[in-house]
Write a structure and sequence with these properties.
Clc chloride channel; mainly alpha; globular; 468 residues
């Protein structure tokens, strides 16, 4: 028969263990530092994209045909030369670092303070180039690197593992970047940890919430895309909502499949060119992104947050082929190898799908259900790309203050994720397995995933010295 808990005895035991409280204080202090790092990253990225917009408008648009390729090539060269672990989204690096068989030096290839600082600077430079990238995925690696640094201050019996710190840091990055602490907690469970360690789950959640509060303190308790007015949805919204979910599921699955094939070095002519001349390939990709941006009047440059806000406000002035062109621009931006994420661009693509379906629905119902369809498209496309439906629908719910849409967002995200799973493997896990395999590290989640060609040492004049 189990004893009833003795409150006074447990309280004395807690207060007597000063080392445990010191360890907890260290974790919370690093959570504050992680949140402030994401805040600083957000401000730097917004400033950098503001510089790009001034160049775009000052040169009547044509200046970006030189500016975007040049800056993109410089970012890729610097990344490959000094911090190859900072390339790409950042979420696959954190997942790779969570592998239990890694030593601390091996884990340091994926997360560290040095990589966090480099990620902030180089991702911001990607925004300055006008590339179609987001800062939310990089924020995961930035915050995880900061939190992981806390391990060196713990006592030998702290019970706080590197795994717990990485999960807390990665989730704190999502919480602070989206101003959505609940989404951070769900992201920790669904995408990073798959479960929370019972001994440290309370401390992890406290760290996530504390990091999220840093974003609230800096930017206010505001929804990312504002508050949307959602009417009572009737049966007339069923078919348009189903169309949005299915379309986003197919497009998101294809997007994840395309990204995985491109970034794991599938043997095709373009990837052979990328492996042989990575900096020239980056310049060519930057030029293509610049041309797409000019064709769309600048709509595809950057994360796409402004386009989403306009669509939700019923003031969308995006071109007819916005979804297709944003899809291509985001794929190219990721393929060239710059540090940058796909969360925010995925939300803008999904919003475009919902907007298009609302236009096709026509009639008197389109204006009334358009905001709901746009929000459903955002959740559905993000869920399809990441195959993390709970995270996707909670992120969108918190970002648009759409609590009235909970069931609709959940259904859209679940359906789109199901369709995506029929088309593509989980994107981040595939990329993490490829990174572990390419680095010849133990316990790769899936050794059958091919290594990126550039990690295999293919010759080329653009390759950094250490990779030749």
């Amino acid at each position: 028969m189990q004893r009833e808990p003795d409150f006074l005895d447990n309280l004395r035991s807690e207060l007597r263990d000063g080392r445990r409280w010191l360890d907890r204080t260290i974790v919370l202090a690093y959570a504050v530092a992680a949140g402030l790092s994401v805040v600083a990253f957000t401000m730097l990225a917004e400033w950098a994209f503001g510089v790009f917009e001034r160049i775009y408008h000052a040169g009547h648009g044509w200046a970006v045909l030189l500016w975007t390729p040049a800056v993109t090539a410089a970012v890729v060269w610097a990344t490959r030369r000094w911090v190859p672990g900072a390339s790409g989204s950042g979420i696959p690096q954190v997942i790779a670092a969570l592998e239990p068989g890694l030593t601390e030096p091996q884990r340091g290839r994926f997360v560290s303070l040095r990589l966090s600082a480099a990620k902030i600077v180089l991702s911001s430079a990607g925004f300055m180039a006008g590339l179609s990238i987001g800062r939310e995925g990089p924020s995961v690696q930035v915050a995880a690197g900061v939190m992981h640094h806390a391990r060196r201050w713990f006592g030998p019996r702290s019970g706080i593992t590197a795994h717990a710190l990485l999960v807390a840091g990665g989730a704190a990055g999502i919480a602070a970047a989206f101003n959505a602490p609940l989404a951070g907690v769900v992201f920790a469970i669904e995408e990073l940890s798959r479960k929370l360690e019972s001994r440290s789950s309370g401390l992890i959640i406290a760290a996530i919430v504390l990091a999220g509060l840093m974003g609230v303190s800096a930017f206010g308790n505001l929804s990312y895309f504002g508050r949307i007015q959602v009417p009572r949805l009737g049966w007339e919204a069923l078919l348009p909502g189903l169309a949005v979910s299915l379309a986003c599921g197919v497009l998101g699955g294809l997007f994840a499949k395309l990204l995985a094939a491109s970034l794991t070095g599938s043997p095709d002519r373009f990837n052979r060119w990328r492996a042989r001349w990575p900096v020239r390939f980056a310049a060519a990709g930057g030029l293509a992104v610049a041309v797409i941006g000019l064709v769309t009047g600048g709509a595809t440059f950057g994360a796409g947050s402004e386009a989403v806000k306009h669509m939700l406000a019923g003031q969308a002035d995006v071109p007819a082929f916005y979804v297709t062109l944003k899809f291509i621009a985001t794929w190219l931006s990721a393929w060239v190898g710059v540090p940058g994420g796909i969360f925010a661009p995925s939300l803008s693509i999904g919003a475009g799908v919902g907007h298009n379906v609302a236009l096709l629905a026509g009639g008197d119902i389109a204006p009334s259900i358009a905001p709901a369809l746009i929000a459903m498209g955002m959740a559905a496309f993000l869920a399809a790309v990441t195959q993390a439906p709970l995270t996707a629908f909670i992120i969108v719910m918190e970002m648009v203050d759409g609590h009235a849409l909970v069931l609709s967002l959940m259904a859209s995200a679940m359906l789109a994720s199901l369709v995506s799973r029929m088309l593509a493997r989980p994107l981040y896990e595939t990329l993490a397995a490829s990174m572990l395999s390419a680095a010849h590290l133990p316990d790769s989640p899936d050794p059958a995933v091919p290594a990126p060609q550039e990690a295999a040492g293919a010759p080329g004049t653009d390759r950094p010295p250490q990779a030749r």
